[in-house]
User: Which sequence fits this backbone?
C-alpha cells in the first residue's frame, strides 16, 4: 500500500495526461497546417522507403455505449458505399502528389468497424488502395474486427487480400458488464471468429480488453482473462476505460455510480497484468502483452518498439498515410489530420482538394522531444546514446528535464549518467513522467485519466 500512496501522491489518480500516440498530440494541431502541407509532404516522399497506410471506416451497425472511437451507426450499406467512393476520390487526389514508385509496407483498416464491409466492398477497397500504392515485397495487412460483425465470407475476402493480422474487440466477457456498457458479445461467437481467423492463416491475433468498466471486480476480470487466454491470442491490449462523456455523448448511458473507484481500477489492471505474465506473455509498454515469439515482443527486446496512432507497433516506417474521415497522416515534417466528420471530409474531397484540415509542422526540437517521449512510452528509458546517434549534441537540451524528473519522481525514476530510467515501481506513472517532456502541456486540452 506504501507504493500506492506514493503513486497517488505523484498524481496517478488525479492527472489527466495524453496517451502519447503522437507528439505533439492532436489538440495542438492548427488549421494553418492543412492540405498544402500534406501535398508538399507527399511530393517529398522517397520511393525507396515503403509507407504505412491507415484507412478509417467510421461505421458500426451497433453503437456500444462505452466506445470513444469516432464512428457513426448505420443499418444499411448505402452510406458505406458512398464512403468508398470518397476514399477512391481521395486516393486519386493523393496519386497526383505521390512520387512514382512509392510502395505500401503496411496497411491497417480501423474504425469503427471495417468488417461492416461485405466481401465485394472488401475487395473493392483493397484493390483501389493497391492500384495507387502497390504493396512492397514485404507487406502486412491488419484489420480491426468486431467478432459479431464478421462471417466466413468476409474473412475469406480479407484473406484473399492478404490480411495477416487481426485485432478483435472483446472488452469483457461477463454479461453484467456487457449489458452495462451496451455491448453484448458471447464467448462462443468470439471463439468461432478466432477459429475462422486461425483457419484462414492469420499469423498474429490481438484481443482488446478494457479495465475500469462498470461492475468489474478483480474476480470478474480474472474470469474474463481466463477466457481470453483460452483463445490463445498472440497479443493483448489492456486499455483503461476512458470515461469522457463530454466527448462521446453515448457514454452518458453508462451509470457512473457503477464504475470502479481509483484504487480498485488500479488493482484490476495489476490482476490482469499478472495473469498475462504468468501465462508467459511479455509486458509491452504501458498496456500491451505479447507472446515472446510475437513481433511486438521481438521488437521490444531489440529496442525497436515504436508507438503510433494505433498504439504499440513494430512498424518502423517513417511515413503513415491516413485515409478517410478524421485519419491522421504522419510525415517526416509533421502531421496532418483529415476533416473529422464524414460530411466535412466528403465536402473537401468533392471540392477537389486533399482532406487535410489541421496539422502540425515539426521543428527539430519537437522531433527530439517526440522521440524522448516515445522511448519512455516504449522502453521506460530515454537512452542518450541512441538519441545522440539520431539528433547529435542537441539532445543535451533534455538534461535539465531529466534532473527535474529525477527529483520530482524520486524512487520511481532515476537519472543514470545522461539517461533517464523509469523504475519498475514507477511504471504506472509513465504517461505522467512523459508529460514532463511535453512542451505543449499548457494548452489546456482535456485528456483521459493517467491510471
Ligand atoms: C475501433 S474499436 C474496436 C473495433 C470493433 N469495432 C469492435 O468493436 O470490435 C477499438 C478499441 O478501442 C477500445 N476503446 C474504445 N472506446 C474506449 C474507451 N472509452 N476506453 C478505452 N478503450 C476504448 C476498445 O478496446 C475497442 O476494441
Ligand atoms: S466498440 Fe466497435 S462496434 Fe462498438 S461502437 Fe466502438 S467501434 Fe463500433
Assistant:
Amino acid at each position: 500500500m506504501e507504493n500506492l500512496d506514493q503513486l497517488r501522491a505523484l498524481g496517478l489518480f488525479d492527472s489527466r495526461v495524453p496517451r502519447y500516440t503522437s507528439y505533439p498530440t492532436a489538440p495542438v494541431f492548427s488549421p494553418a497546417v492543412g492540405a498544402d502541407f500534406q501535398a508538399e509532404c507527399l511530393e517529398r516522399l522517397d520511393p525507396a522507403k515503403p509507407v504505412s497506410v491507415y484507412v478509417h471506416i467510421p461505421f458500426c451497425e451497433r453503437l456500444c455505449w462505452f466506445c470513444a472511437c469516432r464512428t457513426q451507426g448505420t443499418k444499411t450499406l448505402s452510406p458505406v458505399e458512398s464512403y468508398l467512393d470518397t476514399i477512391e476520390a481521395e486516393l486519386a487526389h493523393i496519386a497526383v502528389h505521390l512520387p512514382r514508385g512509392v510502395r505500401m509496407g503496411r496497411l491497417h483498416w480501423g474504425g469503427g468497424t471495417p468488417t461492416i464491409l461485405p466481401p465485394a466492398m472488401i475487395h473493392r477497397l483493397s484493390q483501389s488502395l493497391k492500384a495507387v500504392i502497390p504493396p512492397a515485397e514485404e507487406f502486412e495487412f491488419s484489420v480491426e474486427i468486431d467478432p459479431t460483425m464478421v462471417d466466413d465470407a468476409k474473412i475469406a475476402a480479407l484473406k484473399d487480400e492478404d490480411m495477416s493480422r487481426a485485432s478483435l474487440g472483446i472488452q469483457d466477457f461477463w454479461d453484467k458488464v456487457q449489458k452495462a456498457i451496451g455491448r453484448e458479445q458471447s464467448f462462443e461467437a468470439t471463439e468461432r471468429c478466432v477459429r475462422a481467423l486461425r483457419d484462414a492463416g492469420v499469423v498474429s491475433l490481438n484481443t482488446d480488453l478494457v479495465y475500469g468498466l462498470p461492475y468489474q471486480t478483480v474476480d470478474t476480470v480474472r474470469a474474463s482473462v481466463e477466457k481470453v487466454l483460452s483463445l490463445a491470442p498472440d497479443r493483448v491490449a489492456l486499455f483503461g476505460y476512458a470515461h469522457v462523456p463530454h466527448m462521446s455523448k453515448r457514454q452518458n448511458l453508462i451509470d457512473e455510480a457503477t464504475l470502479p473507484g481509483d484504487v480498485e481500477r488500479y488493482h484490476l489492471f495489476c490482476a490482469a497484468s499478472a495473469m498475462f505474465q504468468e501465462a508467459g506473455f511479455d509486458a509491452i509498454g504501458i498496456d500491451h502483452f505479447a507472446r515472446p515469439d510475437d513481433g511486438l515482443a521481438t521488437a521490444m527486446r531489440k529496442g525497436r518498439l515504436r508507438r503510433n496512432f494505433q498504439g504499440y507497433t513494430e512498424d518502423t516506417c517513417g511515413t503513415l498515410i491516413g485515409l478517410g474521415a478524421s485519419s491522421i497522416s504522419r510525415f517526416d515534417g509533421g502531421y496532418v489530420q483529415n476533416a473529422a466528420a464524414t460530411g466535412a471530409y466528403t465536402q473537401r474531397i468533392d471540392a477537389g482538394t486533399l482532406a487535410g484540415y489541421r496539422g502540425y509542422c515539426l521543428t527539430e526540437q519537437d522531433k527530439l522531444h517526440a522521440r524522448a517521449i516515445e522511448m519512455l512510452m516504449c522502453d521506460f528509458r530515454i537512452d542518450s546514446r541512441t538519441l545522440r546517434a539520431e539528433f547529435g549534441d542537441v539532445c543535451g537540451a533534455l538534461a535539465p528535464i531529466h534532473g527535474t524528473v529525477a527529483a520530482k519522481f524520486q524512487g520511481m525514476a532515476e537519472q543514470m549518467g545522461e539517461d533517464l530510467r523509469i523504475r519498475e515501481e514507477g511504471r504506472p506513472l509513465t504517461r505522467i513522467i512523459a508529460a514532463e517532456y511535453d512542451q505543449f502541456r499548457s494548452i489546456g486540452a482535456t485528456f483521459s485519466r493517467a491510471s
Observations:
- The first helix runs from residue 2 to 9.
- The two ends are 16 Å apart (CA to CA).
- The pocket of iron/sulfur cluster (ligand 2) is lined by residues 60, 62-64, 67, 69, 71, 111-113, 146, 169, 183 (CB under 6 Å).
- The first strand starts at residue 51 and ends at 57.
